[in-house]
TrEMBL record:
Keywords: Cell membrane, Membrane, Transmembrane, Transmembrane helix, Transport. Belongs to the GntP permease family. Coiled coil: none annotated. This is Gluconate transporter. It is a multi-pass membrane protein. InterPro entries: Glcn_transporter (IPR003474). PANTHER family: GNT FAMILY GLUCONATE TRANSPORTER, HIGH-AFFINITY GLUCONATE TRANSPORTER. One of its GO terms (molecular function) is gluconate transmembrane transporter activity.
């Protein structure tokens, strides 16, 4: 226990104080943990390599294809079209709710950083057009992005946790959707009502030019392509639960419902519907896909590093001991325990992805031994990994700088919103757990 405590503190110091790249920090800590826990010298590097290979082997296809699809949705104008359609449908009176819906729809295929940079100019255009308070209008939409980032596949952390815990991607998405909706409503529009008096003059630098109407894809095309991964996952999950089962149909359904196949189909369809059909050539599309891979390269490395740390804990046997001792000494439900560990690491390190993946390595034995529903543990850790975003989180500074706020007002708005999402998420997980 002391060895692991030392390693976690070392990880925190390397990332937050020494500003070491999280992937390098994970490598250093994984090797140190292996040596401290008595793994033979000759086997430590093998464990690190196996851990990286095992987790990336299952995830790299999903995450890379998801990043490509998200980039396509952004550069094609589909995200702009979705937002404009929702604003028109809701009307000026309910424009805040329109942006929330847009953030949720767009946030499913887009990775958080891409979604933030993409949606903020849209928020500012609405703020300037209708003369509305920027934080009051913008925070609910960003709450949608944050919730999808923490709760819903194909985002990196929940996708990785699904793999680690042998959970079901469709079931996790369904439970995550049930929790996401109330989390967004409470931490978004309802909480934002208390922030109307925060003064914010968004920097003109961040106001991006919108594509002209004649360059945008159609409404159906935009919604359908952006949500195609979700549609495919839902359809295959429904077919798998049909009362009349045909062996051949089940095999085909399992193939087409496999997340890498789902993402590949969605990207192929999107390449035509939002790319070729809209007049883009393959050269420009390939360039966008290359940029997308650059955007998530560090995320992949961080996930790989967390896999190395998890493998070292598993091989040493200490992971089982830690999970048992924490459960016995703290007397907490495993879902609460997973949330708490993720929350502590999130507050210490700042990164939601690192917090979720590190916590997963510690509580994995509780899940794999059948002590808790794996789909709900994914969501519990995901919720804990969002709590109290502050000065060591890049999202905190993005929000502060884009909205041109003081540190105090950023804490009052952004940090509180993230914390509300975390606690509401935990409550939703416990409620679902009580009925299944």
């Amino acid at each position: 226990m002391l060895a692991i405590l030392f390693c976690i503190i070392l990880l925190v110091l390397l990332v937050s104080w020494a500003k070491v790249n999280p992937f390098l920090a994970f490598l250093i800590v994984s090797i140190a943990a292996g040596l401290l826990l008595g793994i033979p010298f000759t086997k430590v590097t093998n464990a690190v390599q196996k851990g990286i290979g095992d987790i990336l082997g299952q995830l790299v296809i999903i995450i890379v294809l998801g990043a490509m699809l998200g980039k396509l949705v952004a550069v094609s104008g589909a995200a702009q079209k979705i937002a404009e359609t929702l604003v028109k449908a809701f009307g000026e009176k309910y424009i805040q709710w329109a942006l929330v819906a847009a953030g949720f729809v767009i946030g499913i295929p887009l990775f958080y950083g891409i979604g933030f940079v993409l949606m903020v100019p849209l928020i500012f255009s609405v703020v300037y057009k209708y003369k509305l308070p920027a934080v009051y209008i913008g925070l609910p939409m960003l709450a949608s992005l944050s919730v999808t980032h923490g709760f819903l596949p194909p985002h990196p952390s929940p996708t990785a946790l699904v793999t680690m815990f042998n959970a079901s991607m469709p079931v996790t998405f369904m439970y995550g959707f049930m929790i996401a909706v109330p989390s967004i409503i409470i931490a978004g529009p309802l909480f934002a009502k208390t922030l109307k008096n925060i003064k914010s003059e968004p920097l003109a630098t961040f106001r991006a030019e919108e594509l002209p109407e004649d360059k945008l894809p159609g409404t159906f095309n935009s919604f359908f392509t952006a949500l195609l991964p979700v549609i495919l996952l839902m359809v295959t999950a429904a077919i798998a639960n049909l009362p009349m089962q045909n062996p051949t149909l089940l095999k085909l359904n399992a193939f087409f419902g496999d997340p890498p196949i789902v993402m590949l189909i969605a990207l192929i369809v999107g390449t035509y519907t939002l790319g070729i059909k809209q007049g883009h050539n393959m050269s420009s599309l390939t360039s966008s896909y290359t940029d997308a891979i650059k955007d998530i390269a560090l995320v992949l490395l961080i996930i790989g590093g967390s896999g190395a740390f998890k493998e070292v804990l598993t091989i040493s046997g200490v992971s089982d001991q830690i999970a048992t001792q924490l459960q016995q000494n703290l007397h907490l439900h495993p879902l609460v325990l997973g949330w708490l560990i993720a929350a502590i690491i999130r507050i210490s390190l700042g990164s939601a992805t690192v917090a979720g993946l590190t916590a997963a390595g510690i509580v994995a034995p509780l899940v794999l031994h059948g002590d808790v529903n794996p789909n709900l543990m994914v969501l519990s850790i995901g919720a804990g990994s969002l709590v109290l975003s502050h000065v060591n989180d890049s999202g905190f500074w993005l929000f502060k700088e884009y909205f041109n706020l003081s540190i105090k007002d950023t804490f009052r708005s952004w940090s509180v919103m993230e914390t509300l999402v975390a606690f509401i998420g935990l409550g939703g997980v416990l409620i679902i757990n009580a009925f299944i």
